[in-house]
């Protein structure tokens, strides 16, 4: 029988000298906190589980191992999450003697939570921990898409770099992995090897430069809606907003933008695992980065509380919740089929796989408008190629 006590230390943080939000207004009010005197006995009654992983090894800066405690301290000072979503804070994972021991333990925890249909929220720690996400999703039999908000594609043609900058090597090159597609939101061209970018583009990966994201950030929402794993590296935020990370960049997302992206991840129908990594309190300024990381988590959980599970019922005839549109494109044999939710006004593309079954890919209203201009949307092309591959 799986026992969390074998893997996790209970939550233990000091009460702050001054609290802005107290009592029923505070974040701890509507979550269950796993403490020494009040342990979690029945994990199955929760929908989300917070897990701190204080291990910064295999990263340029080991200080990220102190991140979970500082982030949790800031998170508990925020407002309570609206709605009735059931959240448990399971505390911090016990660090393994070697980094691979930590990975093995985290994989066990994630597998158990995924089998219980609970969404794990990993508070890192090093982004090298992402390989545990891959292992857990593969073991539980989930073919998955990974979306990363990261200024770098963490893959290297050369050897010798820290795992936090090369964890995709282990995932992409592992023939036993159930990994399907990689999406990067906000990469910065001058921080990446062009050979790596070309390699991922050949794999039908979706890579969106930070300038393109900023021009129309709402167009990233469909990408989050089609992803099972979301990884946020705090270095995606500009140094002035988040100085506490080992490899900062003067350019990056503003704090408000990264929180909006996190909310998109929270409302995703398909998402199974969320991770936030590389916050290094040793390099922080007046808890600015840990404070922003806490707000990123808060917006994710707020989005989760507003989640509408529409994707599973897209194929349900007569539900009255969806409108189907057929668009004729010149020189194409079949119509492009778009589906709109009358409740959330979200859009999908409908395709047919080799088995003759309908498959749905998230899209934006702009894709439908583009089709009406007799242009084939890029999302349709990529979705069609994914089915063929």
Low-confidence stretches: none
DSSP helix fraction: 25-40%
- Radius of gyration over alpha carbons? 21 Å
* Count of DSSP-assigned helices: 11
The averaged pLDDT comes out at 93
CATH class of the largest domain: Alpha Beta
What kind of sheet is the major sheet? Answer: 10 strands, mixed
Tell how many strands the DSSP assignment holds: 14
Terminal Cα span? 39 Å
Strand content: 15-25%
Write the CATH fold name of the largest domain.
Arginase, Chain A
Please identify the structural class as seen in this structure: alpha/beta
Features of this protein?
389 residues; alpha/beta; Arginase, Chain A; 2 domains; 10-stranded mixed beta sheet; 4-stranded antiparallel beta sheet; 20% strand
Describe this structure as you would to a colleague.
Helices cover 29% and strands 20% of the residues. With 389 residues, the chain is of the alpha/beta class. It folds into 2 domains: 4-305, Arginase, Chain A; 311-388, no CATH class. The strands form 2 sheets. Strands 1, 2, 3, 4, 5, 6, 7, 8, 9 and 10 form a 10-stranded mixed sheet that branches. It has a 4-stranded antiparallel sheet with strand order 11-12-13-14. It is globular. It starts with 7 loop residues before the first strand and ends with a helix.
Compact summary:
The protein is of the alpha/beta class. The chain has helices spanning 67-75, 99-115, 130-139, 167-172, 194-202, 210-215, 221-225, 255-266, 288-305, 365-372, 378-388; strands at residues 8-9, 31-33, 48-53, 87-93, 119-124, 144-149, 179-187, 206-209, 229-233, 273-277, 322-327, 336-341, 347-352, 358-363. It folds into two domains: 4-305, Arginase, Chain A, CATH 3.40.800.10; 311-388, no CATH class.
């Amino acid at each position: 029988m799986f026992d969390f006590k074998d893997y996790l230390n209970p939550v233990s943080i000091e009460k702050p000298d001054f609290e802005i939000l107290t009592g029923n207004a505070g974040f701890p009010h509507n979550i269950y906190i796993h403490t020494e005197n009040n342990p979690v006995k029945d994990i199955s009654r929760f929908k989300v589980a917070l897990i701190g992983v204080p291990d910064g090894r295999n990263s340029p800066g080991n200080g990220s191992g102190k991140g979970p405690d500082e982030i949790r301290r800031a998170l508990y000072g925020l407002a309570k999450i609206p709605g009735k979503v059931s959240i448990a804070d399971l505390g911090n994972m016990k660090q393994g003697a070697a980094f691979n021991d930590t990975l093995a333990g985290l994989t066990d925890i994630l597998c158990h939570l995924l089998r219980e249909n609970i969404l794990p929220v990993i508070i890192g720690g090093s982004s090298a921990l992402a390989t545990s996400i891959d292992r857990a999703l593969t073991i539980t039999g989930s073919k998955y898409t990974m979306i990363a908000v990261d200024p770098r594609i963490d893959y290297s043609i050369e050897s010798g770099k820290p795992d936090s900058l090369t964890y995709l090597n282990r995932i992409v090159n592992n023939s036993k992995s159930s990994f399907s597609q990689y999406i990067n939101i906000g990469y910065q061209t001058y921080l990446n090897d062009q050979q790596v970018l070309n390699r991922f583009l050949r794999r039908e990966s979706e890579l969106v430069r930070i300038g393109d994201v900023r021009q129309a950030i709402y167009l990233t929402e469909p990408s989050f809606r089609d992803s099972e794993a979301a990884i946020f590296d705090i270095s995606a935020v500009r140094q002035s907003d988040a100085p506490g990370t080992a490899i900062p960049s003067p350019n990056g997302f503003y704090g408000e933008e990264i929180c909006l992206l996190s909310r998109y991840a929270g409302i995703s129908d398909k998402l199974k695992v969320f991770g936030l990594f590389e916050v290094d309190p040793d390099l922080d300024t007046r808890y600015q980065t840990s404070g922003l990381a806490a707000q990123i988590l808060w917006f994710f959980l707020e989005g989760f509380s507003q989640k509408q599970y529409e994707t599973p019922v897209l194929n349900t005839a007569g539900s009255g919740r969806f409108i189907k549109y057929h668009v004729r494109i010149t020189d194409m044999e079949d119509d492009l089929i778009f589906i709109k939710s009358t409740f959330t006004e979200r859009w999908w593309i409908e395709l047919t796989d080799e088995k003759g079954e309908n498959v749905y890919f998230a899209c934006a209203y702009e894709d439908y408008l583009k089709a009406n201009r007799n242009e084939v949307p890029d999302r349709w092309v990529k979705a069609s190629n994914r089915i063929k591959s």
